[in-house]
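Today's session is about reading a structure prediction critically. Students often jump straight to the picture, but the first step is always the sequence itself: look for stretches that repeat, for charged clusters, for runs of hydrophobic residues. Only then move on to the predicted structure, which in these notes is written as discrete structure tokens rather than atom positions. Here is the chain we will use throughout the hour.
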Amino acid sequence: MFSLRDMPASPLAFLLEAYSTRAPSLFLVTGPSGSGKTYWCQQVVEHARQQGWVVAGLLAPPVMEGEEKVGIELLDLSSGERRPLATRLTLAERASGEGPAGLTFGCWRFNHDVLVWGNGVLRDIDSADLLIVDELGPLEFRQQQGLQAAFPLLDGWRYRLACVTARPSLVGAVRMRWPWSQVLVLGDATHD
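Below is the predicted structure for this chain, in token form.
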């Protein structure tokens, strides 16, 4: 297990130093909400592209209104296409169970069509030097919904290096599925 303080300036250099002899390598990037998992993956993508690597997968950048996270997008790293993945439910919507159509989990309403699109993006990946899956969460591990196409893609080892983000509470499930994965902790991993 590695923590953020162990990393050099380049996230990609850190990953290559840590497991340059293993191919493929799978890193689980974990930390509580707001710890910078997506931002860290964006930095890895930037460094990989500078090295001429083929980058594929999905990022889930936040949609912010001021300091508040009000939504989540899904970004195809191959094409650059973005789609609105989830919106934060209001307190009234959560209390009443009403609101826009879609899959609800916690305080988020997920867009079914965007999940279908995201799964298609993942299924279309033949191989990559760097594969990013941001994030595999309770939808995927506990409800067998969400980005299910990530599982066979990661199982197939069609990448040189993969980074998967997940909440601290799911580290055990990820490690059970991929016991060879290395855990990288951002922030305080004792909280989701």
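Discussion point for the tutorial: The chain has seven helices and eleven strands.
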